[in-house]
Amino acid sequence: MGIAAILLLGITAPAGAAPVKNIVLVHGAWVDASGWKPVYQILVKDGYHVTMVQEPLTSLQDDVAATKRILDQQSGPTILVGHSYGGSVITEAGVDPKVVGLVYVAATAADVGEDEGELANRMPSFTAKQNGAIVATPDGFTYLNRADFPADFAPDLPHEQAVFEAQSQILTAGKVFNTPLTAAAWRTKPSWAIVAGADKIINPNLERWYYARAHSHTIVAPGASHSVYESRPQTVAAVIEEAAQHAQP
Fold first, then answer.
1. Domains, the chain, ranges and CATH?
2. Could you give the residue ranges of the DSSP H alpha helices within the chain?
3. CA 48 to chain centre
4. DSSP β-ladder status, 22-26 and 78-83
5. For residue 17, what pLDDT is reported?
6. If we measure between CA atoms, which residue out of 246, 247, 249, 233 comes closest to residue 43?
7. What is the residue-wise DSSP string for 217-234?
């Protein structure tokens, strides 16, 4: 599906402007960057230079630092993309001067002084309301109950793939969800966003609220789960390409 068929945003690129060619993809909690592979393949085929960040998920500061290391390696203007908790990471790291646009994929977009945990409590997700769905270790790391993962995180993926992802989760420090942001790149840089219409991990209404406040160019992927970046890679790639074609270096 082409970009024009998905996005009717009424945005006009500046005359003679060349698309941004560098794309950096940031994953969310409990998973790693390998989930971006379907989006990566589309973008690379379309001529973009794409790099994934492998976050340690040990603290927001550590994850922002990991993202900045990748941004430092980019040759010029860059579109920074975040999924889920990765939205907090790109909101902080996106103040980097190389970043000319942000893309939020079923992601958080808190403001300075806010944390995503507090905001999520205002509009709890399906998973947040389930006792025992999120498990904490004695040393403060979290993971999604492996039995619940396929139905909550990835119901629109092949079941075997969802089970594998459940068993290969990266345990994530609980404090990442409760660390207030010190920067909000969406306040000064253009943003695009995708609401996952059937998201059980982040309330879709919270996603809508985030993106309305940020004045993001937003689309809804009806019926898509939190794993929209894997289950609807063409839609996600199209939004990223829209950002790359219309963000001004």
1. 3-128+178-246 (3.40.50.1820)
2. 3-6, 37-45, 60-72, 86-93, 116-122, 149-152, 159-167, 204-213, 228-231, 233-246
3. 18
4. parallel
5. 64
6. 233
7. EEEEETT--TTHHHHSHH
Residue 4 reports pLDDT greater than 60: no
Cα–Cα dist 142/159, whole Å: 23
* CA 176, 180, 182, 184 torsion-angle sign: positive
* 8, HSE (Cβ side, Cα atoms, 13 Å): 1
Task: Output the six-digit token pair for 174.
Answer: 């609980």
What burial class does residue 117 get, using C-beta atoms within 10 Å of its C-beta: 0-12 exposed, 13-18 middle, 19+ buried? middle
Alpha-carbon span 169 to 104, nearest angstrom: 22
Q: Taking 90 as the threshold, does the pLDDT of residue 207 lie above it?
A: yes
Q: Would you say the pTM of this structure is higher than 0.90?
A: yes
**Residue with the two structure tokens 């199209």:** 238
**Cα–Cα distance measured from residue 196 to residue 207, given in angstroms and rounded to the nearest whole number:** 8
* Residue 141, amino acid: F
